[in-house]
Every structure is written in structure tokens, then in C-alpha cells.
Amino acid sequence: MESSEFILEAKDIVKDFAESDGSPRRVLDGISFGVKRREFLSIIGPSGCGKSTLIRIAAGLETVTSGHFLLDGKKVSGTSAERGMVFQKYTLFPWLSVKQNVMFGLISSGYGSNDAEESALQWLQIVGLEKYAEYYPKQLSGGMQQRVAIARALAPQPRVLLMDEPFGALDAQTRSQMQKYLLEVWKNIDITILFVTHDLDEAVFLSDRILTLQANPGKVKELVTVDVPRPRTEESLFLPEFKTLRSHVEDLIHPVSEKKPEEETFNIVNMVGKKNAVR
């Protein structure tokens, strides 16, 4: 088999959903891209572009109409411990302790009980929650619950971590903390991350590259390289290259030609109002 620079590849992914009358509605149309080993690649696009559907296909949780994903050159079929998944909702089992939640993924991957417990405690230490091993999810904050979910996904040591808007339900301060925390974990372990978000700042802050999609149906618009230097901090958001790249991605997702006339009028009125306020 011919070698590839990519650990994960999408090959002409097409996905149709059935309408109520049985007719097909195309959600994804010919999606192709590759993710390099240890790369952090984000997917972003307008509502209805199929971001979540695409990452669920990569996880093996959704079927395709045609096309396929490759992992290390082999066709992806169904779920696998090589592909960990973190959802927007924490998806923890409320009746299990924090340690038991992390153990669940390990035992499902074939670990014995003792080995699963030892590994779970190690991963809880990595995500800074070893002191909460015997707590239950309801006793933790939203950010802490998501850290448990990340530990559970990483514990079986997947090749790729798939994340579907994992911080979307968090408040702004917790979200910022989790972004920095995720970058720290990613820096220290051998993991490739495919990350879905609707937040432009988050995409630029976290990523090596950004896959932008257009909607109806979802198609690749552009694969953008993020040239903002690492390590990144809050100050990175004010760098000229950060602002320029963010503006470029926003234009890809919401081009001026697609704005409604009333949106343009609203923007003009706002600009005039700001100028008058300055005077």
C-alpha cells in the first residue's frame, strides 16, 4: 500500500439523509482532507454544513452514502478504540464514580479490572482529577466533568481523538481554561486531534490547520494553515496574524455576498451610530 503523510484521511465522503417523503437530502458532498500525525485540525462552518455528521462518520457512529475514512491507510468501519470520541454533552454515567467512568472505556477495550483501575487513576492524574476519583459526576463542575470525559476517551490510548464542540456548553471563563488545558495535554501525549467548533477564536487559538466548510450541502471551502506561533496565550488573540487569520476564516464562512440586505443595512447603521457616538 502506498504510504501517506496522513494518519486520518477522508476520501470523497458523501452523506444523504432521507426526508419525510423518502427523498434524499444531501448533507455532505465529496468531502476529502487529511490529518497529519500529532496535528490539531479544527472543522468549522455555518449551521447546516454537516460538521457533527462528518466527525460522527469518522468515529464510526454514522454511516456514509459513499466514500470512506482511512486510519493509517486502512478503511474505517464501525467504532474502534483507535478513535476516541468526546461529545458536547459530558455523556458520563451518573451512577458511576469518576474512576469507574474512566474504567468503563478501558474495560470495554478489553482491560482486566485491576489494570483498568490502575490506568484510570493514572489518567485522572494526567487531567488533574486524581483527588476526585471517588466523586460522582453531579458533584463536579461542567469543566471537571468534561475533563473526565476526555480522560475516558484517552485512557484506551487511541491514535486519534475526535471532539464534537466539547466546550460549547461551558461558560466563557471555563471554556478558556479548558482550551489551554487541552493544549497542554495534547502537547504531552502522542495524539492527533480532529475538533469541531462553531467558535472562530477557538478554532484559530487551538489549531494547526482549519478545515472550513460551506453549507447546503457541506463542501470543503478551504483548508487554512494557522501561522500564529505556539505556545499560545490570551495575548495571542491580539496578535496581528491572529486577527488577520480570524477575519479570513470568518469571510470564508460568512462571505459578504451571502449576507442579507437587512444585515448590511444593520451594519451600516451601527457604523454610523458608533461614529456619532465618538463625536
TrEMBL record:
GO molecular function, one term: ATP binding
This protein's UniProt keywords: ATP-binding, Nucleotide-binding, Transport
Key word Nucleotide-binding present: yes
All residue ranges annotated as the ABC transporter domain in the record: 8-240
Superkingdom of this protein's organism: Bacteria
Keyword Transport in annotation: yes
InterPro entries: AAA+_ATPase (IPR003593), ABC_transporter-like_ATP-bd (IPR003439), ABC_transporter-like_CS (IPR017871), ABC_transporter_ATP-bind (IPR050166), P-loop_NTPase (IPR027417)
Protein's recorded name: NitT/TauT family transport system ATP-binding protein
UniProt source species: Hallerella succinigenes
